[in-house]
Amino acid sequence: MSWDLLANALVAGLLLAGFYAAVSLGISLIFGLLDIANIGQPAFLILGSYAAYVVNTAFDLDPIVAGLLFMPLFYVLGVVVYRVYYGSFERRGEGETMQGRGLVFFFGILFIVEVSLSLKYGVDYRLVQAAYIGKSIEWGGVGIAFRLLVPCVVGLAMTLALYLFLARTFYGRAIMAVSQDAQALRLMGANPIRIKAIAFGIGIAMSGLAGALLITIAPVVPSTDRDYIGRMFAITVLGGMGSIAGTLVASLIIALVESLMGTFFGPSWSQAVSFGILLIALAVRPAGLFGR
Q1: How many domains does the structure of the chain reveal?
Q2: Which of these, 20, 195, 213, 265, could form a disulfide with 151 (CB 3.0-4.6 Å)?
Q3: pLDDT (tens digit, 0 to 9) for every residue of the chain, 292 residues total?
Q4: Residue 207 placed within a domain
Q5: Is residue 16 in a domain?
């Protein structure tokens, strides 16, 4: 075994962990706290990638800055999607039937976004340009690529910001409460539906920014979203439903395992082993690492 190869794999895994956390924050909020199985979440991820691509190509603006500028638009889009979901499914309260139809609704969004992007931009890989892309530093034989380092730092900042928002603001605490006792929230003078719409909007905005990080790391095609459906849910469930700290720790575990497996056994094994870890962890602790 080459120790340099091992060290590089570990560093790459650590850097990917911050990005994986950013990718999973939205579904951790929507699925983990609101109990809405939004399998269409990766559609907003890839939509964020293409939004950053368009602005970067047209105005030579940094893709991550473009992602930040698009966050309010993605927030509004998320609120609209939740309102449609609520009016069509959640309000009717049909239990498992409602959840099944909701899955079809979100799958439809995923399919429409992917097909629309394919028709508009084709299936060629799209990439962005930035001053740090292609640059790296080497320390003790370990290479640190800026295209991984910058998204990692942004992802960690996103994780911290969401954690502080949920823990220290009225709306954050209301979002935490709405999944536990909506009736008590009404008695406090807050509208649970409005709180859920706000949370859903934040979750979609997080995915939009994560999409800008994604295209910074590697070129994308419309079907790239499929690579993240299982990974998002795996990280959320492994970390513990609705736990932001758990999302970060689970991202670290999944990223390290994928990096090591991809380096020494080939990329085809990486996701399979990651889900194997998820199954073992759930067998030992069904609530996830940080679940209540």
Answers
A1: 1
A2: 213
A3: 577 888 999 999 999 999 999 999 999 999 989 989 899 999 999 999 999 999 999 999 999 999 999 999 999 999 999 999 998 888 776 655 566 778 889 999 999 999 999 999 999 999 999 999 989 888 877 889 999 999 999 999 999 999 999 999 989 989 988 877 777 777 777 888 999 999 999 999 999 999 999 999 999 999 999 889 888 988 999 999 889 999 999 999 999 999 988 888 877 777 777 778 778 877 888 888 887 6
A4: yes
A5: yes
Inside any domain, residue 271 = yes
Query: Domain range spanning residue 183?
Result: 3-284
Threshold 0.85, pTM exceeds: yes
Task: Supply the CATH number for residue 167's domain.
Answer: 1.10.3470
SS3 sequence, the chain?
A: CCHHHHHHHHHHHHHHHHHHHHHHHHHHHHHHHCCCCCCCHHHHHHHHHHHHHHHHHHHCCCHHHHHHHHHHHHHHHHHHHHHHHHHHCHHHCCCHHHHHHHHHHHHHHHHHHHHHHHHHHCCCCECCCCCCCCCEEEECCEEEEHHHHHHHHHHHHHHHHHHHHHHHCHHHHHHHHHCCCHHHHHHCCCCHHHHHHHHHHHHHHHHHHHHHHHHHHCCECHHHHHHHHHHHHHHHHHHCCCCHHHHHHHHHHHHHHHHHHHHHCCHHHHHHHHHHHHHHHHHHCCCCCCCC
